[in-house]
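Exercise 7. Given the encoded structure of a 243-residue chain, write a plausible sequence.
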């Protein structure tokens, strides 16, 4: 009897929650059949989490992937449905349908020849796009698929073995290490690098040095301003076989 009462109670509770969400949904003009796709950063909230979109909006996760367990600062492509607006200081309460993790790393430092070798400096097939959002430098690029199980490595480094100009930019290098493990196939991917791990005081931009497969070096200027309108390609943006 207790089991039956418990089941009935849980069923009623589920219906009540659904009606509550639907009511909020109707008032704010949202449909449970609609969904949004956005770049976001995970913000840990004790045993749960919220999402900060690149637009600056904050989403409270009220349904769906409630038990998602990841580190604070993980970058994701978020697939979500808005249930209502202005929820306890958050712009929206949402149902998370799916989270696609993006390779997320800190900016690192080359302080010795050993560091220089560790990060590698292999040629990258192409760098397709760079922009700053949510205190991360995002890079879309094309890389070689490995011929064996060992993953390739991409890094964003501040090379302290080189002297950089004293101007309004910070000089970084986008490094690629194939570990001599290349195939003839290529794929696209994305990585986000946390800019809070370096000193940007007085800087207005970033100059990124990278090298192509012909050994030619190029520098890309990236302004230090938030951009939140970039096109999302889930298949190429989500975490690939890279470290």
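Solution.
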């Amino acid at each position: 009897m207790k089991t039956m009462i418990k089941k009935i109670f849980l069923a009623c509770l589920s219906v009540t929650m659904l009606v509550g969400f639907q009511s909020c949904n109707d008032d704010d003009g949202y449909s449970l059949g609609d969904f949004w796709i956005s770049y976001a950063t995970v913000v840990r909230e004790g045993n749960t989490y919220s999402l900060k979109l690149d637009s600056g909006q904050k989403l409270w996760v009220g349904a769906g992937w409630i038990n998602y367990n990841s580190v604070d600062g993980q970058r994701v492509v978020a697939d979500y449905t808005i249930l209502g607006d202005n929820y306890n200081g958050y712009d929206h309460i949402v149902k998370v349908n799916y989270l696609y993790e993006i390779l997320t790393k800190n900016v690192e430092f080359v302080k010795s020849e050993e560091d220089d070798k560790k990060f590698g400096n292999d040629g990258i097939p192409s760098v397709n796009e760079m922009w700053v959002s949510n205190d991360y430098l995002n890079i879309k690029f094309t890389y070689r698929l490995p011929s064996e199980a060992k993953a390739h490595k991409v890094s964003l480094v501040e090379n302290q073995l080189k002297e950089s100009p004293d101007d309004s930019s910070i000089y970084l290098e986008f490094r690629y290490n194939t570990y001599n493990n290349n195939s003839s196939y290529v794929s696209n991917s994305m990585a986000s690098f946390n800019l809070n791990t370096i000193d940007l005081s007085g800087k207005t931009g970033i100059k990124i040095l990278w090298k192509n497969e012909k050994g030619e070096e190029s520098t890309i200027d990236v302004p230090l301003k938030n951009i939140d309108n970039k096109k999302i390609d889930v298949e190429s943006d989500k975490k690939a076989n890279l470290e």
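Remark. The first helix runs from residue 2 to 28. Students should compare their own answers with the one above.
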